[in-house]
Structure formats: C-alpha cells, structure tokens
Amino acid sequence: MNVDLEKYVHVCIANGEARERGNIKAGNKQADIVFSAYTILKENNRLNELLGLLSHENLYVRLWAATHCLQFPNSNAEDVLEELAKLKGSVVSISAITSLFGWRNGMAKF
Q: How buried is residue 8: exposed, middle or buried, by Cβ count under 10 Å (0-12/13-18/19+)?
C-alpha cells in the first residue's frame, strides 16, 4: 500500500475511533485529513485505488471508501453502504444512511 492510501486508511480509522468516543472535535479534525488524503488521490488520478478498500476489515475504512467510490458507476459502493446501514444504533450505520441519502438526493459532490 502506498503512502497516500496508508494515510487515508489510518485517518479513516482515527476518525471512527474519535466519533465512537464522542470526541467531535477530534473526529472533525480527522475527517478534514481524510478529505485531504482523498483530494491528493483525486488530483493524482488515483481514486480507483479506493475500490480495493471496499472490503477492508475496518468498518470506518469501508464507510469512507464506499462514500468516496459512489461516483464509480460499476462499483459496489452502494451495496457496501447498505450493509453498513444495517448495523443499527452505530455511528457507522448513521453515517452510511446519511451518505446514501445525500448520494440518492443529489447532495453529494465529488
């Protein structure tokens, strides 16, 4: 795994851990870093590398990767988010539902 993708994975996990602890400030900081890593991958035409993370063992990595892969028509990103949405009462579930709602209602911008 290359440095940019490793950073993406690391901060996705850190974001999820902060959110689970209820530390919104730290979660938001990590989310900003996830977006920065996403932007670097996008600027270097490497977003397709995120497709490999759709089956990552960590739920937060899958959540972020699936959200960012929704723009790929033949990915299973929506399916991944649907599965995560079934984890009732979890931060992951709420985020997956929010991502799907935004995507399906044209509010997601990539």
A: buried
Question: pLDDT of 42-100, one tens digit each?
Answer: 899 999 999 999 999 999 999 999 999 998 988 999 999 999 999 988 899 999 999 99
Provide the pLDDT for residue 1.
Answer: 55
Neighbours of 15 (CB within 10 A): 25
Angle of helix 59-69 versus helix 3-20 axis, rounded to 10: 120
Query: Chain centroid to CA 8: how far?
Result: 9
Walk me through the domains of the chain, giving residue ranges and CATH numbers.
3-104 (1.25.40)
pTM of the model: 0.91
Task: Indicate the burial class of 102 (C-beta count within 10 angstroms; 0-12, 13-18, 19 or more).
Answer: middle
Q: C-alpha 93: how far from its chain's center?
A: 12
Q: Cα(101)–Cα(4) distance, rounded to whole angstroms?
A: 28
